[in-house]
Every structure is written in structure tokens, then in C-alpha cells.
Design a protein that fits this description.
The structure is a homodimer.
Chain A lengths: L3 E4 L8 H19 L5 H10 L8 H11 L5 H13 L3 E4 L4 E4 L11 E5 L5 E5 L1 H12 L4 E12 L6
Parallel strand pairs in A: 4-6
Antiparallel strand pairs in A: 1-5, 2-3, 4-5
Helix pairs in contact in A: 2-4, 3-4
The structure holds zinc ion (4 copies).
The first copy, chain A, binds a DNA duplex (30 and 30 nucleotides) through helix 4.
Chain lengths: ~160, ~160
DNA sequence: TATTGAAATGTTATAATATAACATTTTTGA
DNA sequence: TCAAAAATGTTATATTATAACATTTCAATA
């Protein structure tokens, strides 16, 4: 267990197809190993989440699903997102009410930290053990038992900073 | 600027009237010093937020306002909450879509950390400079410039832990 | 103190996010 | 093959939040 940038900020011209392929492949592998069913619908929602490195809104996914699959309705999307979140394949960005694909679902991480670039909209994901440890330590001093932590940091990414 | 528990978890039998009085008094003082108008409506919303140490939902505030003030509507509440948040008198807990009174609006704090007890529902607020510094340091290493940070930690508070 | 522009509030409507409840279909495994 | 469980379909509704414009209140100053 090491400090890790689970998903960095990527340049505009990176090969995003590769990100998508890696995400889909590891999702399939993970679900298989866990005995979970990545149905066509769930897979399609995961693909739609992975369109970009910006968090995606549930109703934007729904609009796209409807074009392909006229029976789609809000529960269609929310159920798929719930499943994907349970498997750790997708995270919800609480401050944006939007969803982003997890860049490292393999190495389990209870406590991610998200960096949100207010300029380009992209989100990076860290699993920094020093941060998690410090939070644990600090709240323990107060007698608090930490179960889960949400860290969302808004600012400007290195690429937008030049 | 020191590490500070802005608002601790309080026992069930603490004198909450005192919390309320301190909050209202410091709000009045703060607004006066800033040339901001704490109108009766805004003050009333602040009082309703300070009913408990649990975050309050906007529509719960609205229901109570309506009883006193039949012309209340969603914008009534959201405008008051917006004003109170701008003054630093109220914080939004993003993971709950709910609002909580700030325990230390005087000492300005850009980056609070919130501890949410999943058992009693109460929320404590920290302004821990070590946490803020570590976050800043960690994201700086990645070339990221931090503007604001949201830290919301869910667990069990010391009182509920015994 | 009368005027006026800005701030605050009132009012109606609607947008955006999410879940409840029940029906039907598909999958799995005995 | 059959029954139970899981997944999806379907309709309705709950929850959270903002847009747009009208009216009222407030504060500065002419
Ligand atoms: Zn990519
Ligand atoms: Zn992740
Ligand atoms: Zn109290
Ligand atoms: Zn505060």
C-alpha cells in the first residue's frame, strides 16, 4: 500500500482511447473476479462515464442512453451508477453531483482524494496514505472513529497553470 | 492562526441555548463590522440552522418559516442561506445537501474539516492547519494550485463511542 | 424631505437531482 | 424444468435548487 496518483491530470492530446480501454478491461476483470455481473447496460453506463476526465451528470448519461435504448429512465441510470459505485468502478463527486470513473479500481482504496480543476473541469484522483493517516490521527485525538472520508479540492491543475 | 476545534461534539445535556446565543451575537457583530445587513429574515434562518448541531435541510427550514411567514418560498430560504454562507456564518455539508451553523465565523477559515457522526447525526468542525498544510503540500507537488478544500469525514463521535 | 437607485423580498414557474413502488423479463441454480 | 433471485422496465413522485420578473424597503443625497 503506497501513496498513489490513481488518475493524474492528462494533457489535452493524450490518447484517451487507452484510458477507456484500460478502464473497461479492468472493470470486466474485476467484476469477473468478484462474481459480479457487468451487464451490457452497466458496461454502457461505465463507458459513458469514461467519455472524458470530467465528472458526468446522471441526466447527461440518461440523455445519451435514451438515444440508444428508448426504455431508459432515471432508475436505469441510477441503478447502474449504484452498482458501479459498489464495485468501486465509479466515484461520486459530492460537491458537483456528478460521477467519474475510478482510475484504479484494482488496488482497493477506501479513501480517495479528488482534485477538481476549476478551469478545465477535469478531476484527478489520489490515494495518498499520508493524508488518510493524518486525518485518522487527527480525528482519533478527538475520540472520533473514522469510517469514510471525502476530500474534494478545488483549484487549478498543472496543465492549466502552464 | 492555530489548530482549532471550531465546534466540538457536545453532550446531549449541554446548554444549547448558549451555543445559540453565542452564534447569534457573533453573527450580529460580524455583519455590523462588515457593513452587511443581518435582516430579520436572515437572522431567523440563522436561528433555525442553529436549532441543533445536526445539519439542517433547506426545505425543513422552509417548512418552519412558512408557519411564521406565509410568503416564504424556496428562494426565500436559499437566498438567506447564500448570504449566510458568503458571510461565513453557515457551511454547506456537500455530502448531505444540508447546512450547519459555523462555530467560529470570527477567525476566518477558508478550509474547515467536518466530522459527521453517523450515529447521532451531529457534526463537528475543525480548522486544522496541519491538514490544510498537508493537502496544500501534496497537491503542490503535482503542480496543482488549491483554492478551496472540502473535507467531510463520516464516523462515530466520542460520545456515541462511550 | 423628496427623490432615486440599490438591495432585499415576494411570487410564480421550472430545472435538476434522486428515489419509491410495483410489473415484467432474464438469469441462475436446484 | 421450475422456482427464486437478480436485473430491467415503467410510472409516479420526492427532493434540491434556480430563473425570471414584480414589489417593497432601505439608504444616500440632492
Ligand atoms: Zn484519458
Ligand atoms: Zn478510485
Ligand atoms: Zn449546542
Ligand atoms: Zn466554520
Amino acid at each position: 500500500m503506497k501513496n498513489k496518483v490513481i488518475m493524474p491530470f492528462r494533457s489535452a492530446k493524450h490518447q484517451h482511447r487507452k484510458c477507456q480501454k484500460i478502464a473497461l478491461d479492468s472493470a470486466k476483470k474485476l467484476c469477473e473476479s468478484q462474481g459480479q455481473r457487468l451487464t451490457p447496460l452497466r458496461q454502457r453506463v461505465l463507458e459513458l462515464v469514461w467519455q472524458t476526465h470530467e465528472p458526468v451528470k446522471a441526466y447527461d448519461i440518461l440523455d445519451q442512453l435514451k438515444d440508444e435504448h428508448s426504455s431508459s429512465a432515471p432508475p436505469t441510470v441510477y441503478r447502474a451508477l449504484d452498482f458501479l459505485q459498489e464495485q468501486g468502478l465509479v466515484h461520486k463527486i459530492e460537491s458537483l453531483n456528478a460521477y467519474i470513473g475510478c482510475g484504479g479500481p484494482d488496488e482497493s482504496h477506501e479513501h480517495s482524494q479528488f482534485l477538481i480543476c476549476q478551469q478545465c473541469g477535469a478531476v484527478a484522483e489520489l490515494d495518498d496514505i499520508d493524508i488518510t493517516n493524518l486525518l485518522n490521527e487527527k480525528v482519533s485525538e478527538l475520540g472520533f472513529t473514522m469510517q469514510t472520508g471525502m476530500v474534494e479540492i478545488v483549484g487549478v491543475c498543472a496543465i492549466c497553470n502552464h
